[in-house]
Amino acid sequence: MSGAFLSVLLALQTSVPPALQHFHAGVEAEKNGQLDTAVVELRKATELDSTLAVAFADLGGVYIEKRDYSAAIPPLKRALELNPGLNGAHRLLGYALLAQGYATEAIPHLEQAHAEDALGIALLEAGKLPEALAVLEKALAQNPNDPELLYYYGRTSGLLSKQIFDELEARFPDSARAHQMMAQDYAVLRDVPGAEREFFEALRLSPQTAGLHLQLGELYARAQQWDKAEEQFRLETGIQSGSAEAFYRLGEALLQLGKFHEAREALVHSDQLRQDMPETLYQLGKAAAMDGDDTTAQKSWKHLLSLEKDTSLASQAHFGLAGIYRKQGKHADADREMEEFRKSQSKPAHTDDSQK
Amino acid sequence: MNQRITRRHFLEACASMGLALPMPLSLAAPLSMFDVKHPRGLDFSHVNSPTPQKYLIETMGGGVALLDYNNDGLLDIFLVNSGRLANPMHAPETFDRQDPRNWNRLYRQNRDGSFTDVTKEAGLANAGDGNYGMGVAVGDYDNDGFPDLYVTNYGKNTLYHNNGDGTFTDVTAKVGVETGGWSCSAGFFDYDNDGHLDLFVTRYMQWDTQHSKICGGEWQTYCPPAEFPATTNILYRNRGDGTFEDVSHRSGIASIKGRSLGVAFADYDDDGFTDIFVSNDGMRQFLFHNNGDGTFTECALEAGAALTADGKPLSGMGTVFQDYDNDGRPDILVTVLPREDYALFHNDGNGSFSYRSLQAGLGLLSAASSGWGACLEDFDNDGWKDLFVAQSHVLDNVEQIDHMLHYKEQPLLALNHNGHFERGDSGVTAAIAGRGAAFGDLNNDGWMDVVVTSLGGEPLVLFNHGGSGNWLSISLRGTRSNRDGLGARVQVNGQTRYATTAGSYISASDKRLHFGLGTAEMAKVEIHWPSGIHQILEGVKTNQFLEVRELEKS
């Protein structure tokens, strides 16, 4: 508890002197970290003066410091009966109730105290997910680097998402989206036949739904079934002709299948739709190099290196450029790029560990 | 039994109906390539004894060799067993190699195609206590005309000298090739062109049962190689007097540590000296350039054969060093784990290689598979070397961890069409835990056959159904070069092969060089012997087994 907060409140209270003496002793003991002594003194103060709200509030605060939340709740409730305007007591009672699992009861006290961080958690625990998300977002805006807040914000988002999907599944079990959702669940479990079945059903119900072919293609790509992946990505580009991601994925699949010219076309289109994407630039360089167009490969990889310096893609671009320069007989350039590649390799498997 | 239609059946059916084949059979509709047979007498079953300890050696054996140990003209089969592991292991480790169930086995092929187990009478029953078996190399190290066997182990390796009378003698200590640690693939080659075969031995890592680990958390899996320290490979120089010296350090081979599983030999820069490619697991690959002065320089990174096109390391297992695109230069193939592609490094001819897996079609064929033993051999005799790979994941519980992967797999047969590979029907319908693989013409019909080992199981013997393509099988008889001409570059009608028994994974193949020749009835044979002698034979009839004796003078 804040000493200043208590001093101000104390000045407003009317009390008999012995109670005040114990109260002061309790506050002093609390300051000195003598929490058991503080409890004894503050309890005596409340016994001697059952209307001394601050003594009740402070007693509850000391119990919270002792992490004895159940013991904290009665004196805090009594303090608020005596003085409903004690915001500090509202905050403490909200914390204590929340800690004890009484999230719903905690909410009005935390609202009163404007304790948004704890309020967000209470709303989450009470199952009021949209409200929790709004409050936590506000709290995060004030403390963007608080890992606790980030955790609860993420957890709330996830639960809210699940809740909405559950509702979708319950209300529209035969909808394309419900099947898409089930397909995604199977995909997470790496159950290719299960996911495939659900994706096919979704596509049967709604063949033009954006993203379905893309997700099915991604499933095939993860399963290394690149010919099937290509087919799905191509269908997605037909539905979403403005999707840079769909064209990127198509280009990636075509590259894996050794169809370099087609891969380049898809990747160029993706680059036009969304410029300066390092992934697209890397794959475009790779496709061009494998298609025998070293000029385009160099251009793409150099552009990538102008955007990124210390990433794995940048490292790969240095390696690719070294290969091109070596092939062209530009040994100094090849050595320079290889040196950049070596420098970027932090994993021992590449260099150090293999040296004697 | 395999119920698929065979090439031979198809041919017979067409003939009986008076049908003419519209094209060479090798180019016709896809029919299965092999017949899976269980030759009478071949009763081997590999013992690896998997334990809950997940000792890494459990999942790495065992090798196979195809050799004609008694020079009767028929290929015999030597199979490496591993041994029994306790749970957990305690010293002294014997692996129960005295138990006949855990012996390595030599099977002599009989005239009727059956096999007879001659292990005991050949003197090969004793694999050595403390040796958990891995692989085998074959070479006639003393040029006496009989192939010798070098067996690699976790423990100590063993060299069995072929006495020429159907028996072998363990000469390991006497000749000085008793490598310790954990050896995997090995191979004989002549690095200094002195006419005596030298020996290269790969070693996987610094590992022993007392320093084993279990990985994968609750999944309890074998650990990835990076969990254990790397180690050096070994090069033994044949002194020519029946003994070897360890020149690993002097030659530069031991100047770099790896996690090596495979080795293959070829002269990639055509300087007349055989170079070495070593496949490493979970790190960059090694290319040892032979400097011609008894030393080697590791140059894979500079040569473009160390990493993928993305600069990523490979889980290198087996390897092949042969020319896949008929441009006359040896290329490198490396088999790897899923979500990598089998790496194909194309020899660009200026001492450098380029990564060509995707161009060659391996992105589609291999990205979901795990490869071990492999070869580039012309199975359909169309003049292009096809790819065969023994496959299976390294983790026996991988399907529990990742439903998208499989532990047991069918072998891969990929037919080569002008340098591009397309899936073929091997005829193998069962999935196995493939490991070693050796290649040769078991029944001398001019069509290449395969023996694949299965971890903890029986080997697969795959007999090629044959077809209409012509062929030529060449045996080299070195005089100034080593007796079997290993290291020779042999060109036939525009195709090139490097004479070797090494490559694949922990296995050794038929020393004869097989060429599929399509419709050609005559062949031009050109041999560049390790001695430097260049020999040309014109107007050679196809469909024959040809022995070529090295000219005494160039």
Automatic annotation (TrEMBL), chain B:
Cited PROSITE patterns: TAT
InterPro entries in alphabetical order: Crtac1, FG-GAP, Integrin_alpha_N, TAT_signal, UnbV_ASPIC
Keywords: Signal
Keyword Iron set for record: no
Superkingdom: Bacteria
Domain ASPIC/UnbV residue range list: 485-546
Signal sequence bounds: 1-28
Pfam families, sorted: FG-GAP_3, UnbV_ASPIC
Gene3D superfamilies: Integrin alpha, N-terminal
Name of the molecule in the record: ASPIC/UnbV domain-containing protein
Taxonomic source organism: Silvibacterium bohemicum
